[in-house]
Design a protein that fits this description.
Two copies of one chain form a homodimer. By secondary structure, chain A is an alpha/beta fold. Helices cover 33% and strands 19% of the residues of chain A. In chain A, the strands form three sheets. A five-stranded mixed β-sheet of chain A has the order 3-2-1-4-7. Chains A and B meet through β9, β10 and α6 of A and β9, β10 and α6 of B.
């Protein structure tokens, strides 16, 4: 198989070609500009590649409801030019092949479940903690969509006792994203996350928020693996802090060895590393090719 | 079809007989005592009923992992006699028919998705707010199990500004259940919930906690319907308070007409009323009969 993959982030696009084994033979990356400019570059890349299908994991919010007149659109994003942009339709006009379409974090969750840290499992959550926070949700062997699609980055969180930062989410002020995304770290400490030392108190506070949302997500969804990716999670000192806080929060209530005895293997970085997003888009493309849909498909 | 159904609650058991249309022809109810006493009564009830299958929605925690040696057991409950009790095995020895087995709230979610308020939808959450709080999770047409099973009643919640009640959860003190289950209401106000007037400030505080957990659950799982059952939700003044708080919390972020324009039809009481639990167990029994498993089945 020769499958196209697009990791469509709000900051950069990655386009690549891969196969059903998850091998990515080639890829390019370019900044996300106005959609006409950006999609033209993506289309040029795939033009002579003879792909059988293309999978797209996109920043959002996006329309995932096949019966909706705006299915395949990016919807209410504040990103200039992308509001109500027909992403899938633009590709469909150029490439009459099956197209897989989902959120960037759902794609990454599927990639991790197919070839990465959750391989062989029926469920995982994939967090990206970076410019924003997103949570991909894969349960009972399926990506979760529902009413719109998961937007777990905006869940309410309890404030850390030593934190009076007001939060920066324009919708909710002090939701998870408002308190713990990269820009929140920078606004709170007046320097970028990667400039803070590994033993700075920032990380204990950061871990508090991420761990609290993981605690809630474990209780509500009982995932078999929790995968933490994105730029902020490059700060590897966060992992032990988060694991300890999750275990402390649950306080023995969820009776599973995976949490009680092996939490180091339960809350983990992406098995696919920086390729989780592109691999996930590839997995969406493979699923679309297998289901044979030519108007975008859901996994 | 002639299917048995057991709604196995921590306070009472309901056993019934129904068919594939969801009609319940007969049922009995008795208090939950020691498991030997209680299961004997259930077994006597079904003994001469010639059921093709039995579905069981049980209080928990329970073991839902088919590959586990304690599959079908009630596990770490504090309820006397029920710890590590082989519920499914006890029934299997008496009734060599397919057995469906899930949590009480997952059963109720399936019942509501099959015949009730979420009929025709691919997803819903079913809350019971009573002696405890449980959340059944039905997404992408399937009940969610994962590592153990959802235990959403114990999610962390932000404290209401006018509430200094310490919470009564033995594991987490002030989690959702610790702050908002029936016994928490009673401990906070020194009288039972049904003795508080409909305009008592208790209800605004109660709605705050329930709405906050619904807000988080909508953001993480994007369900197509949220169904609120259980004794505390008999206080119908809670519904408008909860809907208003959810809409205020989301603040327009989840861009769905169901929430923006029709939240009265989105956050609703059980369509099956008090029969949600028993109907759900019936739906589990039907699924077991259809899949033909005789060792308990998962829907």
């Amino acid at each position: 198989m020769r499958i196209g993959a697009i990791e469509a982030g709000g900051t950069k696009f990655v386009c690549g070609i891969g196969d059903e084994l998850g091998t990515i033979a080639d890829h390019i990356s370019f900044p996300t500009e106005h959609p006409e400019v950006t999609l033209s570059r993506a289309i040029s890349y795939f033009k002579d590649k003879q792909v059988e299908a293309i999978g797209i994991g996109s920043f959002g919010p996006i329309d995932l409801r096949p019966e909706s007149p705006t299915y395949g659109y990016v919807t209410t994003t504040p990103k200039a030019g992308w509001q109500n942009f027909d992403f899938l339709g633009t590709l469909r006009r150029e490439f009459p092949v099956p197209l897989g379409w989902d959120t960037d974090v759902n794609a990454a969750a599927l990639g991790e479940a197919t070839w990465g840290a959750a391989k062989g499992l029926n469920s995982c959550l994939y967090y990206t903690v970076g410019t924003g926070i997103g949570i991909g949700v894969y349960l009972e062997g399926r990506l979760v969509h529902g009413l719109v699609h998961p937007e777990g980055g905006h869940v309410p969180v309890r404030r850390h006792l030593n934190d009076d930062f007001e939060g920066i989410c324009p919708y909710h002020s002090d939701c998870l994203e408002g308190m713990a995304a990269g820009p929140a770290l920078e606004a709170r400490w007046k320097m970028k996350g990667h400039e803070l030392s590994a033993d700075h108190p920032a990380w204990e506070i950061e871990a508090h928020y991420i761990a609290q949302s993981i605690t809630g997500a474990i209780l509500l969804n009982s995932p078999e693996k929790v995968i933490l990716g994105g730029g902020v999670m490059q700060q590897s000192q966060l992992f032990p802090l988060i694991r300890d806080a999750v275990r402390r929060n649950l306080n023995g209530y969820v009776n599973a060895e995976e949490i009680a005895d092996r939490i180091d293997e339960y809350i983990v970085p992406p098995g696919l590393g920086q390729k989780a997003g592109l691999s996930g888009a590839l997995a969406l493309g493979i699923a679309a090719a297998q289901s044979g849909l030519n108007s975008g498909s859901r996994c």
